[in-house]
């Protein structure tokens, strides 16, 4: 029924720009919105627009009914008053057409409409006039006893206060709505910040008024609204809500600590962002999202908060799923401890999130997990005989301890893998130095020896990037030197791949000078780090020999008879394609963090497709050597990434088990190479366009 109504509303009233299916809603604005508008609404922040999906999000029935009522009664006209009033039409300002682009046309209109309130009805007075605000609040106090939702929303849009305390009657609007049994009015007031637990002049709450009037459903809903914050956190963590009817409270009735309250509110906003982000990613076209820049990677800035708090709110997005779950567990546990009035029995330890090398301390110290763990264990032992079954509650002690043990096991495994990685890195550096000494000797021997001589040397595994580092020398220069200290950090990230390494001198009977293309020089700068036209190739056996790889690299460059193309694509196009590549890489890395190895292949295909689209922007024979090198690295890394990701799914069940630790390291290294090559192309294009 509601979906049918929603479609007609989308055509007639609600969807501002097109007759499209309204899959989302802005709760506090009382309008249904399409996918395009939703991306802009989410970027405004929850203090401007509270966005929720109509089908994939959880809805209290009365809250959904309230939004439906506002939308069907034309709440959209409240926010477009001056556009609909012929006497107040502003010169030069029009409503966007369905064919207009989201950015910047529709996005600017939405920001003016909801953030700046540019089209709402303006009273003939200053916005900060306290007398007018008081009068509006008194009108709201009287209107909530009726069923006219749009009237109350109009008063709230003009500045009426949902928590206004009437000096003569000694009540708030929520008390009046509860007494009159107006549950939809109560939902609207709570959305705009009304306190369900606020007492009247005699100390009675809106729940007391509702129960006295026989409105049991309204009283129970007000109880749920009072505990909405911690209920939402518990549901995000374990998919269950407290049963407040039976008194199974897992959160405190009061939070006296202001900082703890602000932290809980910020985490609540982050939960809302992540849930909407998950729904958004499952219902949208990823390539379209990237090109239109509609992603919301962190909480938008709220001007009512301090800069420090806004920074902390945005850094919540840096938490992965495991770290964010740990933070929620800590908040819920400390909330329960505060409710029971227990104090800390051990010193407070800082929260360790595994960023030991970060010099900046971005988060305050909080209580350690051991305190909550010991308190919960003690309570369970003392109350096990006379307490009710905890399985009826939203989360049991056993579930909490299982999550805690799983987190501890994961941390131990991470530490073990880091130790193994360090050992392998040390071994790799030692073998690299030996290979460099061998390469130096062959280099000197190749200059003095005949051109047709061929020398094969077997050595330890060496990464492709290292063979490039020893090949960047001018013809006739001195033999290569060992790795400099500046390259050691790069070498420490590489992992051993294959056991065979070959060093091949030129076989064409000519000198070293004939290997590089005419006019091309190798320098030690950033561009030459990815030059594949080496004289001597120290490479890995990953599908073709070093001689074949060098030949292929030479064929990719401009031929002697071809004319280089000096043109470069538009910087904006390159940036858009780079954002698309970055978005797909983030999806791959997220799958690696969550051990979803079966997602490697589709993620690598998306990355390869995005890389192909980005490379197609550039000419086939670019004039700049740096562009050629970056494009070669981009294409080669994308192909190598596809090959590595295919290993995650064995062709046969009886095949050799996959070493997912090593495979993940190789996948990450390939993704790093792709990102670096894309960044180089953006830098080069930007620099050349400015010149």
TrEMBL record:
<dbReference type="GO" id="GO:0036465">
    <property type="term" value="P:synaptic vesicle recycling"/>
</dbReference>
<dbReference type="InterPro" id="IPR001164">
    <property type="entry name" value="ArfGAP_dom"/>
</dbReference>
<feature type="domain" description="Arf-GAP">
    <location>
        <begin position="22"/>
        <end position="127"/>
    </location>
</feature>
<feature type="repeat" description="ANK">
    <location>
        <begin position="169"/>
        <end position="201"/>
    </location>
</feature>
<feature type="compositionally biased region" description="Basic and acidic residues">
    <location>
        <begin position="545"/>
        <end position="554"/>
    </location>
</feature>
<feature type="compositionally biased region" description="Polar residues">
    <location>
        <begin position="525"/>
        <end position="544"/>
    </location>
</feature>
<dbReference type="GO" id="GO:0008270">
    <property type="term" value="F:zinc ion binding"/>
</dbReference>
<dbReference type="InterPro" id="IPR036770">
    <property type="entry name" value="Ankyrin_rpt-contain_sf"/>
</dbReference>
<keyword id="KW-0175">Coiled coil</keyword>
<dbReference type="Pfam" id="PF01412">
    <property type="entry name" value="ArfGap"/>
</dbReference>
<dbReference type="GO" id="GO:0043005">
    <property type="term" value="C:neuron projection"/>
</dbReference>
<feature type="compositionally biased region" description="Basic and acidic residues">
    <location>
        <begin position="352"/>
        <end position="364"/>
    </location>
</feature>
<dbReference type="GO" id="GO:0005096">
    <property type="term" value="F:GTPase activator activity"/>
</dbReference>
<keyword id="KW-0677">Repeat</keyword>
<dbReference type="Pfam" id="PF08518">
    <property type="entry name" value="GIT_SHD"/>
</dbReference>
<dbReference type="InterPro" id="IPR013724">
    <property type="entry name" value="GIT_SHD"/>
</dbReference>
<feature type="region of interest" description="Disordered">
    <location>
        <begin position="339"/>
        <end position="393"/>
    </location>
</feature>
<dbReference type="InterPro" id="IPR002110">
    <property type="entry name" value="Ankyrin_rpt"/>
</dbReference>
<dbReference type="InterPro" id="IPR032352">
    <property type="entry name" value="GIT1/2_CC"/>
</dbReference>
<feature type="compositionally biased region" description="Polar residues">
    <location>
        <begin position="375"/>
        <end position="390"/>
    </location>
</feature>
<dbReference type="Pfam" id="PF12796">
    <property type="entry name" value="Ank_2"/>
</dbReference>
<dbReference type="GO" id="GO:0005829">
    <property type="term" value="C:cytosol"/>
</dbReference>
<dbReference type="GO" id="GO:0008277">
    <property type="term" value="P:regulation of G protein-coupled receptor signaling pathway"/>
</dbReference>
<keyword id="KW-0863">Zinc-finger</keyword>
<feature type="coiled-coil region">
    <location>
        <begin position="407"/>
        <end position="434"/>
    </location>
</feature>
<dbReference type="GO" id="GO:0098794">
    <property type="term" value="C:postsynapse"/>
</dbReference>
<keyword id="KW-0862">Zinc</keyword>
<dbReference type="GO" id="GO:0007420">
    <property type="term" value="P:brain development"/>
</dbReference>
<keyword id="KW-0479">Metal-binding</keyword>
<feature type="region of interest" description="Disordered">
    <location>
        <begin position="496"/>
        <end position="568"/>
    </location>
</feature>
<dbReference type="Pfam" id="PF16559">
    <property type="entry name" value="GIT_CC"/>
</dbReference>
<protein>
    <submittedName>
        <fullName>GIT ArfGAP 1</fullName>
    </submittedName>
</protein>
<dbReference type="Pfam" id="PF12205">
    <property type="entry name" value="GIT1_C"/>
</dbReference>
<dbReference type="GO" id="GO:0032012">
    <property type="term" value="P:regulation of ARF protein signal transduction"/>
</dbReference>
<dbReference type="InterPro" id="IPR047161">
    <property type="entry name" value="GIT-like"/>
</dbReference>
<keyword id="KW-0343">GTPase activation</keyword>
<dbReference type="InterPro" id="IPR022018">
    <property type="entry name" value="GIT1_C"/>
</dbReference>
<dbReference type="InterPro" id="IPR037278">
    <property type="entry name" value="ARFGAP/RecO"/>
</dbReference>
<keyword id="KW-0040">ANK repeat</keyword>
<dbReference type="GO" id="GO:0098793">
    <property type="term" value="C:presynapse"/>
</dbReference>
<dbReference type="InterPro" id="IPR038508">
    <property type="entry name" value="ArfGAP_dom_sf"/>
</dbReference>
<dbReference type="GO" id="GO:0031267">
    <property type="term" value="F:small GTPase binding"/>
</dbReference>
């Amino acid at each position: 029924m509601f979906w049918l109504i929603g479609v007609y509303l989308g055509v007639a009233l609600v969807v501002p720009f097109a007759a499209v299916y309204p899959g989302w809603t802005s709760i506090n604005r009382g309008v249904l919105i399409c996918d395009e508008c939703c991306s802009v609404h989410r970027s405004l922040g929850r203090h401007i627009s509270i966005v929720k999906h109509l089908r994939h999000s959880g809805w209290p029935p009365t809250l959904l009914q309230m939004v439906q009522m506002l939308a069907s009664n034309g709440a959209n006209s409240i926010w477009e008053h001056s556009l609909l009033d012929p006497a107040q039409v502003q010169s030069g300002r029009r409503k966007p057409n369905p064919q207009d682009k989201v950015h910047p046309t529709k996005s600017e209109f939405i920001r003016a409409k909801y953030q700046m309130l540019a089209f709402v009805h303006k009273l003939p007075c200053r916005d900060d006039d306290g007398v007018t605000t008081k009068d509006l609040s008194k009108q709201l106090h009287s209107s909530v006893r009726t069923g006219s939702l749009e009237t109350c929303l109009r008063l709230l849009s003009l500045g009426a206060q949902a928590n206004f305390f009437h000096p003569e009657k000694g009540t708030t609007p929520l008390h009046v709505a509860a007494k009159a049994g107006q549950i939809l009015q109560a939902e609207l007031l709570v959305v705009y910040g009304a306190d369900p637990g606020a007492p009247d002049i005699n100390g009675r709450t809106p729940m007391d008024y509702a129960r006295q009037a026989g409105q049991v459903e309204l009283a129970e809903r007000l109880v749920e609204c009072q505990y909405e914050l911690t209920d939402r956190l518990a549901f995000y963590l374990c998919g269950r809500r407290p049963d407040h009817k039976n008194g199974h409270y897992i959160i405190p009735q009061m939070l006296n600590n202001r900082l703890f309250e602000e932290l809980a509110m910020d985490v609540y906003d982050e939960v809302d962002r992540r849930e909407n982000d998950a729904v958004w990613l499952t219902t949208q076209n990823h390539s379209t999202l990237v090109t239109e820049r509609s992603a919301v990677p962190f909480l938008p800035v709220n001007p009512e908060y301090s800069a420090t708090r806004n920074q902390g709110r945005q850094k919540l997005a840096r938490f992965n799923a495991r770290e964010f779950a740990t933070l929620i567990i800590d908040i819920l546990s400390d909330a329960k401890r505060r409710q029971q009035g227990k104090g800390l029995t051990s010193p407070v330890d800082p929260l360790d999130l595994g960023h030991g090398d970060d010099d900046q301390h971005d988060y305050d110290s909080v209580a350690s997990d051991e305190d909550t763990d010991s308190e919960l264990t003690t309570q369970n032992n003392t109350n096990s005989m006379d307490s009710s079954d905890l399985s009826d509650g939203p989360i049991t002690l056993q579930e909490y301890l299982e999550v805690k043990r799983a987190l501890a096991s994961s941390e131990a495994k991470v530490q073990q893998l880091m130790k193994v990685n360090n050992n392998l890195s040390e071994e790799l550096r030692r073998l690299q130095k030996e290979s460099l000494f061998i390469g130096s000797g062959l280099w000197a021997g190749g200059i003095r020896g005949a051109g047709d001589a061929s020398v094969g040397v077997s050595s330890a595994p060496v990464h492709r990037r290292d063979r490039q580092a020893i090949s960047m020398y001018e013809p006739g220069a001195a033999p290569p030197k060992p790795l400099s200290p500046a390259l050691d950090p790069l070498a420490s990230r590489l992992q051993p791949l294959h056991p065979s390494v070959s060093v091949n001198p030129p076989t064409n009977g000519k000198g070293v000078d004939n290997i590089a293309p005419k006019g091309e020089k190798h320098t030690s700068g950033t561009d030459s780090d990815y030059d594949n036209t080496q004289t001597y190739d120290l490479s890995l056996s990953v599908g073709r020999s070093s001689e074949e790889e060098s030949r292929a690299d030479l064929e990719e460059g401009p031929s002697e008879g071809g004319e280089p193309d000096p043109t470069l694509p538009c910087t904006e196009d390159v940036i858009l394609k780079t954002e698309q590549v970055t978005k797909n890489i983030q999806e791959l890395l997220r799958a690696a963090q969550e051990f979803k190895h079966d997602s490697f292949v589709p993620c690598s295909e998306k990355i390869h497709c995005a890389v192909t689209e980005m490379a197609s922007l550039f000419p086939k024979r670019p004039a700049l050597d740096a562009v050629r090198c970056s494009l070669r690295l981009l294409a080669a890394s994308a192909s190598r990434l596809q090959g590595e990701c295919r290993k995650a799914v064995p062709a046969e069940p009886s095949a050799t088990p996959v070493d997912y630790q090593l495979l993940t390291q190789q996948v990450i290294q390939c993704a790093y190479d792709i990102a670096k090559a894309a960044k180089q192309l953006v830098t080069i294009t930007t620099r050349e366009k400015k010149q």
